[in-house]
Design brief:
- This protein is mainly beta and 163 residues long.
- Helices cover 11% and strands 46% of the residues.
- The protein has one domain (3-20, 36-162).
- It contains 2 helices and 8 strands.
């Protein structure tokens, strides 16, 4: 693997391996600022970076996590954005899976559901799911839930105030 690819993989793994969240302009690749969100409340638009964005075990290799790193914490983060909230969630998971995101209001809480599906490969890798959730101005609660087959894991719940 070439050095630039190793650097990119290391940056993605660092983000998914529980390092303190860094501004989106740091950490290897430059991400655009949060868009101004418009439309129906609860509409979720998402981007996936890392292993979940590629198909097949061979293409997952640059994002593979070494065995000693598999138990590192995974921290989701929710920040206000114009017209809504941005949820950034680095996570570790089995290679060869695919990801999708949906949002739904449940008992007054906006729940962002990150679904990992497919047949896992024999390795662990890193991805980052970034979701832009359209919300009206005001105070809200956002919960991030990861669904892996029948398993449901709450990654966290945060207050967010939308300007």
């Amino acid at each position: 693997m070439t050095r630039p690819l190793l650097a990119l993989a290391a940056a993605l793994v660092a983000g998914a391996a529980g390092a303190e969240p860094v501004p989106m302009s740091q950490g290897g690749a430059v991400a655009p600022p949060a868009p101004t969100l418009k439309g129906k409340s609860g509409k979720a638009r998402y981007e996936i970076r890392g292993c979940l964005a590629v198909k097949g075990e061979e293409r997952s290799r640059p994002f593979e996590i070494q065995p000693g790193q598999r138990t590192l914490p995974q921290r989701a983060r929710v920040d206000p954005a114009p017209g809504g909230a941005r949820v950034r969630h680095p996570l570790t998971h089995a290679c060869c899976l695919t990801g999708s995101v949906k949002a739904k209001r449940i008992d007054g809480i906006w729940e962002v559901r990150e679904t990992l599906s497919g047949t896992p490969c024999r390795c662990q890798c890193a991805s980052t799911l970034e979701t832009f959730l359209t919300l009206p101005p005001g105070k809200h609660r956002v919960r991030v839930v990861v669904l892996r087959g029948a398993e449901r894991e709450v990654a966290g719940e945060w207050p967010v105030e939308v300007p």
